[in-house]
Amino acid sequence: MRIEQIELRRIELPFVAPFETSGWREEANHSVLVRLFAQGAEGWGEAPVGVGPWYNEETSATAWVMLREILAPLILQVDLDGPEGVEAAFARVRANRMARSGIEFAAWDLFGRLRGQSLTSMLGGTRMSVDVGVSVGVQSSIEALLEVVGAYVAAGYQRVKLKIKPGWDIEPTRAIRERWPDLRLQVDANSIYTLADAAHLAQLDAFNLLLIEQPLAHDDIFDHAKLQPQLRTPICLDESIVSPEHARWALEMGACGVINIKPSRVGGLTAARQIHDMAQAAGVPVWCGGMLETGIGRAANVALASLPNFSLPGDISASERYFKRDIVTNPFRLNPDSTLSVPTGPGSGAEVDMEYLEHVTVEKVIIG
Ligand code: OSB
Ligand code: MG
Predict the structure, then answer these.
(1) pLDDT in tens, 91-141
(2) 43, 102, 126, 141: which could form a disulfide with 47 (CB 3.0–4.6 Å)?
(3) Can you tell me the distance from the alpha carbon of 119 to that of 303, in angstroms, rounded to the nearest whole number?
(4) Which ligand has the minimum distance to the alpha carbon of residue 237?
(5) What's the rounded Cα separation, in Å, for the pair 257 and 68?
(6) Of 39, 30, 42, 58, nearest to 6 (Cα)?
(7) Superfamily for 122-341?
(8) Which one of 13, 16, 55 would you pick to mutate in the ligand 1 pocket, going by the greatest count of ligand atoms within 8 A of its CB?
């Protein structure tokens, strides 16, 4: 099958509150959206890039150029028998995995809609709902943090992830743990520490955390393997795992006890599923991370998280945690048991709100 036409959009969709990590701050979703047309059907994908290259090397501007100049023209030239063919079509492309994932997600959605099959069933999902938590950015004070976390706990979230950085790590974690002794709690450093901080980070062992996410450099596996034996808490890698090969290296080196799988970070759902399978075989649990996606990208994450080895809660919160209004007419809502329901309709299940999408689109191009 040939893709007949591709529509690309850059959007700006404001967050309900700014999101701050150890190294940067996000005020809005600046994703590039991909819409594929074929045989009277369409599929949607989201490349969840930010404004600057602070998480990985990609930005909204680079993904836009990559998709428009390289990836969209390339995919218009290949015959696709299924969504798995997209990865092969991009085999010669280096890095730029978030840009690639926009087309890859859209192809899964497109084939699902053409076949009348849900994304969860295409991927081999085994769950009708997925456990989720909420990722809490750096706050201005411990009092403010306890208020923010309290509101999420009251809303029904049973797992919280705290963003940490030097000067905002041990004490805020202690404060949350003292207030909520049984809350499932984890922290994320977004690559701000070095191996010299091992003894400092070991203080976090006192707080019964599920994991410590990406303490060391964004492209490191080696030093994480040296750090893990110095901590009781499992290290979880995020930024460092950009492909199934990287996952294999980390597993063989003992660099982590848990993997955060973001399908966008690894180029799409095909690679994400491969990492899931490898981790499962190694007895290492995984969970689905997030990039503050709209309802389009979130639907792909929820479907992926329905696979069996996603045994820890994902950073896949309800739409209202991010946006006053989402660009889909069926935004995800939190169930009382801290889960999101997995869509069962054809494709990803996301129904795009074209009127509101037009309103938040800052640039649009049609190719083919
Ligand atoms: O490191 O997991 C991260 C958001 C943007 C970039 C990186 C990260 C995050 C989050 C939020 O932690 C996850 C979400 O709720 O989508
Ligand atoms: Mg992370």
Answers:
(1) 999 999 999 999 999 999 999 999 999 999 999 999 999 999 999 999 999
(2) 102
(3) 6
(4) 2
(5) 38
(6) 42
(7) Enolase-like C-terminal domain (3.20.20.120)
(8) 55
Ligand 1 atom having least distance to the Cα of 322: 15
Ligand 1 centroid to residue 37 C-alpha, Å: 30
- Sequence-distant (6+) residues with CB within 8 A of 190 are 21, 22, 23, 55, 163, 165, 213, 214, 238, 239
Task: Report which protein residue has its CA nearest ligand 1's atom 12.
Answer: 135
Compute the mean pLDDT over every residue in the chain, rounded to the nearest whole number.
98
Note the pLDDT of residue 126.
98
| Vertex 236: Cα angle to 200 and 195 (nearest 5) | 35
Q: 114 alpha carbon to ligand 2 midpoint, in Å?
A: 34
Residue nearest to atom 7 of ligand 1 (CA): 291
CA distance 182 to 19: 25
Residues 163-173 have a mean pLDDT of 98
Looking at the CA of residue 239, tell me the nearest atom of ligand 1. Answer: 1
- Name the helix (H) or strand (E) containing 115: helix 97-115
Residues acting as catalytic residues: 163, 262
Taking the centre of ligand 1 as the mean of its atom positions, its distance from the CA of residue 291, in whole angstroms, is: 5
Query: Among 56, 188, 191, 298, which is best to mutate for testing ligand 1, by the most ligand atoms less than 8 A from CB?
Result: 188
Ligand 1 binding pocket (C-beta < 6 A) is: 55, 135, 188, 190, 238, 289-292, 315, 317
Boundaries of every domain in the chain: 5-115+350-367, 122-341
Q: Give per-residue pLDDT as tens, 176-189.
A: 999 999 999 999 99
Length in residues, the chain: 368
* Ligand number with the minimum distance to the CA of 58: 1
Mean pLDDT of all residues in 195-220: 98
Return the pLDDT at 299: 98
Q: From residue 235, give the alpha-carbon distance in Å to each of 146, 151, 182, 288.
A: 25, 28, 20, 15
The closest alpha carbon to 214, from 189, 194, 244, 181, belongs to 189
Q: What is the ipTM of this complex?
A: 0.99
Q: Which of 57, 51, 315, 21 is nearest to 192 (CA)?
A: 21
| 135 Cα to the center of ligand 1, angstroms | 7
Distance from chain centroid for Cα 177? 25
Give the per-residue pLDDT at 258. 98
